[in-house]
Design a protein that fits this description.
Helix content: over 70%
Structural class: mainly alpha
Radius of gyration: 18 Å
Strand content: under 5%
Number of helices: 10
Distance between the termini: 13 Å
């Protein structure tokens, strides 16, 4: 991976991450409150819809940059000795590795953000201090495994589908897709991936919001999913699916469209 490609992926990824997270933040807050164990209205409903946004402002750029740098690097490296028919596998592997790296940055900001979204009367800074005081530094990484278990399947669906749709559209029109066309492909791919991974997102939210000492706080995704299924049924497993699909479809349009545009301008 050349230095110019590295810089383009770094900057374009960060810009795309900031754009999508800040523009669509209200939908994310609604989704989190729908998934919270106390319920939507007890978690403040539509009040304080931007609660926790400072956490996202700090973590969005570096986590998105880390994802795209890793994704582009491994996509480029693996393509040099892999036949073209294995491109979907390359995209899956590259996206999965990208998510694992990005989650090192994303999870602490996600923990603080979601706890603030569920308790908007408490500031982001106070939530951060409370987490550190009660759980220590590792408390910021509660839900890391559940986040990775959500993000990896999500990427296994989203990125191969995104790359396939871009390739198909390019072939149909006889030239490489424009940025807005890449954005449309991103919206469709993101919406599909969001729908099928919603139960994993619900489990991740419950783990991050759980009180210390509870079953959910232990971070076992299978146990949390089983408990939700037993007590709330299918509707509990797919809580927040509408705002999640809407958020990630719009997010995919902005995120991947902005990334393609910014990267093309930088190269």
């Amino acid at each position: 991976m050349h230095r110019r490609d590295f810089t383009a992926s770094l900057v374009a990824g960060g810009i795309a991450g900031m754009c999508v997270d800040l523009v669509l933040y209200p939908l994310d807050t609604i989704k989190t409150r729908l998934q919270s164990p106390q319920g939507f209205f007890k978690a403040s409903g539509f009040r304080g819809i931007y609660a926790g946004v400072p956490s996202v402002a700090v973590g969005s750029f570096p986590s998105a940059s880390a994802f795209f740098v890793t994704y582009e690097y491994f996509k480029s490296a693996l393509s040099t000795f892999t036949p073209p028919y294995l491109n979907p596998v390359i995209h899956m592997v590259s996206a999965s590795l990208g998510e694992m790296v990005a989650c090192v940055i994303r999870v602490p900001t996600e923990v603080v953000k979601q706890r603030t979204q569920a308790s908007p009367s408490t500031s982001t800074y106070r939530i951060l201090l409370l987490t550190l005081r009660e759980e220590g530094f590792l408390g910021l990484y509660r839900g890391y495994s559940s986040t990775v278990l959500r993000e990896v399947p999500f990427s296994l669906v989203q990125f191969p589908l995104w790359e396939f749709l871009k390739g198909l559209w390019s072939w149909r029109q006889g030239h490489v897709v424009y940025s807005w066309q890449a954005a449309v492909c991103g919206a469709f791919a993101g919406g599909m991936a969001a729908a099928v991974t919603t139960p994993l997102d619900v489990a991740k939210t419950r783990i991050m919001l759980a009180k210390v000492g509870t079953t959910e706080a232990k971070g076992n995704v299978t146990t949390v999913l089983y408990k939700i299924w037993r007590t709330e049924g299918l509707s509990g497993l797919f809580a927040g699916i509408v705002p999640r699909v809407a958020w990630i479809s719009f997010g995919g349009f902005i995120f991947l469209g902005a990334y393609e545009k910014a990267r093309s301008l930088l190269l």
